[in-house]
Description:
The protein is α+β, with helices and mostly antiparallel strands and 352 residues long. It folds into two domains: 10-117, 2-Layer Sandwich (Phosphorylase Kinase, domain 1), CATH 3.30.200.20; 134-349, Aminoglycoside 3'-phosphotransferase, Chain: A, domain 2, CATH 3.90.1200. 39% of the residues lie in helices and 13% in strands. A six-stranded antiparallel sheet has the order 1-2-3-4-6-5. A two-stranded antiparallel sheet has the order 7-10. A hairpin with a 2-residue loop joins β3 (52-57) and β4 (60-66).
Amino acid sequence: MSAQWDPSGTIPVLEAHAFDVARLEQYLADTVPDAVDGIRVQQFKGGQSNPTYLLETRSGRYVLRRKPPGALLPSAHAVDREFRLIRALQGSAVPVPKPICYCADESIVGTPFYLMEYVDGRIFWSADLPGLTPEERHEAYREMNRVIAAIHAIDPESVGLGDFGRPERYVERQIDRWTRQYRASETGRIEAMEQLIDWLPRHVPAEEPCRITHGDYRIDNLIFDAHEIRIRAVIDWELATLGNALSDFAYNCMPWRLPHAIRKGLAGIDVDALGIPQESDYVAWYCERVGRDSIPAFDFYIAFNLFRLASILQGVAARALAGNASSTRAVEAGQLARPVAELGWEQASLIH
Length: 352
């Protein structure tokens, strides 16, 4: 994506994502009366999936997150699951926004939605963390590592999420799911995806204990405190489920394998000069936190996650063509599906 575009902040609500604010006010007057006092609605610029809005009232600020309008891929955009998860994690070691209400009634804003508190702070949109000192970058990566380990340390049963997903054969089912999602949004043949669709099911590692997985844990889905290097909230839980924590962690490590031109990755950048840890150090921190010696199938999980990311980006491309993508940069993001798939196949080709 072009360096000139700043994904932070809000814009006027896109025409494709507009809704009747008076209807929303009427609904909230009955369910969350404190939130209703002359609502002003803006849309957040960042994100490619579920449209997300800032609601400003005299009593405070709130965030509304909804399914996008139009035809959607099966099982995608599950805002009900997001709401259930952040509610379950309240009071845990994982910081999340406070959930307020969920509404399945499509007559209110056109699609199901949920409301949560607005968490003030900083979002870093690039893995190289411009604007921070080397010491601050090091601490930010330490903090990101700490919180993903905290997510994976939670026993799903202990927070009422024992039925949040199927615990068995997670990776196989994910390969099947993202293959189907890719096929449903395919706009042209990507040879690397065909290779990965054939190769991945034949090289799945042994089962791992079932844990809560975020599914999209990366630096720009974390809200840091405005003044210190501390995560105040983990956001965008749309892809969360129960599954393989090592696969989830490998996704978090993908910036080290992606060039800066693709999702502002770290490959080819002098991370030592920036104060950012090497991938091997970051992996070692995680292993120490979760009590492991190593992650033997780490490279497989990287290849799998590049395949998964390519499928997600292909879905963004399809939504852009359909005119219901959440971000104004969706076309540009969708064009990354091919190079990400090619990186995934290149990674898989190195595994013997």
